[in-house]
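Need tokens for this chain, all 137 residues.
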Amino acid sequence: MAPRITDATTKAGIVIVGYIAVFMLGLTSALLVGGVGGTIASVALALAVVLFCARTFRAPGEPIAPPRPWWKLTGGRTSGLVVGGLCVLQVVGQLASARVSDGAGWSLPAALLSAVLAAAFVHSALRQPARRASPDA
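Here are the structure tokens for all 137 residues:
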């Protein structure tokens, strides 16, 4: 069975370390390899981090043992919409930076990945039922 991560602090740590690793790999490979090679490496690592998190993170009350359905990327509708919205903001930032920088072509693959991830997270959120307030609250 694949590991399941349920602790919020551990999840946050993994996301932060993954984000830093993608940034550092992109920066290092852009300096060493330059251009397309660095972009491909960064995009591939970013996709790997997102897939790892989507497959191993579990929300409170979500079953731990069975694997998630292929389309389910988060534990609930709200988290899927929030992450999807953050991906949309990432697209906007990447396209804006591509427009003002000389290396405009290198931001486009990252923007495309962010757009695909935004669509996937929103799709995942909309397929999940909305959580109802507990009658005890």
